[in-house]
């Protein structure tokens, strides 16, 4: 059990001038500390936290006067986890298609707040939401920053840029409904696709998400190959880069993966049918792959058990799902940089850490999987100076579990302690 001890009142008074900036000092006594994933863990370290940032990490257990001590001497302590691919506003369910036409932006934002809380409690202190209602996405991100809701730090894309009839366009309804709900992010031709990117930038999204290929859960029987023309992909990437945004692409089929990376794209989500040429393109672009193997496992399972799946979706689930583990194995062996992402919302929120076990099944070591969810994901999200390690100057986003995650990554399914920005949100 974790004890949080307040120091004696006398000590508090004696140091009050030293901490005149009115910032609380907290010290975590970590029995085992993985400060920088990729480097060896250390025993018996003290993490000194001032306000919302890490000030220093010291050997042994130190107890500065006036500091609050958090005893994690029997725990395994590491940086907060980062999920590069979530959909906080939804969770796959039999009523999803009806929800799309009955819920509004406010419903999406409030549902997102509930799922954000669950995600933080599972040890994920930062996420990238790559697909949701535009107004709700930006509002959720800002509400978390303002301290109005409890949840991970967020980067958001809002709705994915898609061709008309493409994977992220409204689909599976009658024509009247589809006209009424057409997304501002659906576009055709290079000029129109620049407009879509610019509208999203105007709405203050952090990153541009596109659907470079068909997808599993759309109802159009349009396959899982390339859906944008090369000139459209180039115009999207160029317009986004010009305005300081990276572009990440949902892509299963190899035609779309390679066309997007050839157009200068920054990262690929899923990557199911990538080939040797894709692996070279990843390396040339220094692009990240976000494997979302958990989504593949989830839809493959649902294809056999869920009676509400339409025939179009069931068939694609059976094709795509089982291929994702082999895809990650090939990409990892080929030296592709991996950033952790789950597509949670397809799977249940709060189960994000199941992805670690699948990554290990695909041939990654526990250390490599954890590095993908910390150091790599922080770099992928352009937040490497702020999160991803326990080092001076980083946010105090710190988690702990009861057993060694380098022995068995399943340890990360049972979160004991969650701190974000120096605040304790979970302690048991
Ligand atoms: Zn997704």
Write the layout of secondary structure elements.
Layout lengths: L2 E3 L3 H6 L10 E9 L8 E9 L2 E7 L8 E12 L1 E6 L9 H7 L2 H17 L2 E6 L4 H12 L7 E4 L18 H6 L9 H13 L5 E4 L18 H13 L4 E5 L2 H9 L4 E4 L5 H10 L2 E3 L2 H13 L5 H10 L3 H10 L3 E2 L15 H8 L4 H15 L17 E4 L13 E6 L2 E5 L1
Parallel strand pairs: 2-5, 6-7, 7-8, 9-10, 10-11, 11-12, 12-13
Antiparallel strand pairs: 1-5, 2-3, 3-4, 5-14, 14-15, 15-16
Helix pairs in contact: 3-4, 6-7, 8-9, 10-11
Mind explaining what this structure looks like?
By secondary structure, the chain is α/β, with parallel strands linked by helices. It has two domains: about 5-80 and about 390-425, Urease, subunit C, domain 1; about 80-380, TIM Barrel (Alpha-Beta Barrel). It has helices spanning about 10-15, 95-100, 105-120, 135-145, 175-180, 190-200, 230-240, 255-260, 275-285, 295-305, 310-320, 325-335, 355-360, 365-380, and strands at about 5, 25-35, 40-50, 55-60, 70-80, 80-85, 125-130, 155, 210, 245-250, 265-270, 290, 335-340, 400, 415-420, 425. Strands 1, 2, 3, 4, 5, 14, 15 and 16 form an eight-stranded mixed beta sheet that branches. A five-stranded parallel beta sheet has the order 9-10-11-12-13, with helices on both faces. The structure holds zinc ion (ZN). Zinc ion (ZN) binds near residues 85 and 87. Zinc ion binds near residues 85, 130, 131 and 343.
Rg, Å, rounded: 22 Å
What structural category do the secondary elements indicate? alpha/beta
CATH topology of the largest domain: TIM Barrel
CATH homologous superfamily annotation of the largest domain? Metal-dependent hydrolases
Estimate nothing, just give the exact number of structural domains: 2
Shape: globular
Q: Helix amount, in percent?
A: 25-40%
User: What percentage of the residues does DSSP assign to strands (E)?
Assistant: 15-25%
Low-confidence stretches: 6-20
SSE run: EHEEEEEHHEHEHHEHEHEHEHHHEHHEEE
Q: Quickly give the CATH architecture of the largest domain.
A: Alpha-Beta Barrel
Termini gap: 6 Å
Oligomer: single chain
Bound molecules: zinc ion
Average pLDDT rating = 92
Note the main sheet. 8 strands, mixed
Q: What is the β-strand count?
A: 16
Tally of individual helices: 14
* The first-level CATH class name of the largest domain: Alpha Beta
